[in-house]
Amino acid sequence: MAEPGTIVHVVDRQGVKLARLKASALLTEEEVEALGAGLEALAELPGQRVVLSFLGVTHITSVVLRRLIEVHRRLKESGGELRLADIEAHVYEMFTITRLDRLFRIYEREDDAIASFLESAGD
Hints:
single chain, 123 residues, alpha/beta, Transcription Regulator spoIIAA, 5 helices
């Protein structure tokens, strides 16, 4: 099984957890589980603000979308939030077809997503 650290690399950027995917495709069960485990770990602490960058990711499965919904729900329940960034056009199409573009706040670049958290913190 792929370890969480092999799929998700997390850094702290001004109090926002930036999770970068380190695979160009998330297709196997092991990759999806590693992604879920890496993101679930971020949801364990209350109020986590998380940006998930898809930079360089060219293929995902519907199972990945389901995992993202689960993580989104867990973060929201604990007072946190998940925002997405850097999604290539054909991957983004999966979000629009499934209408998940209405559930997630999606940004063109990770810096924009991080800035959105910092701006909302100042309100």
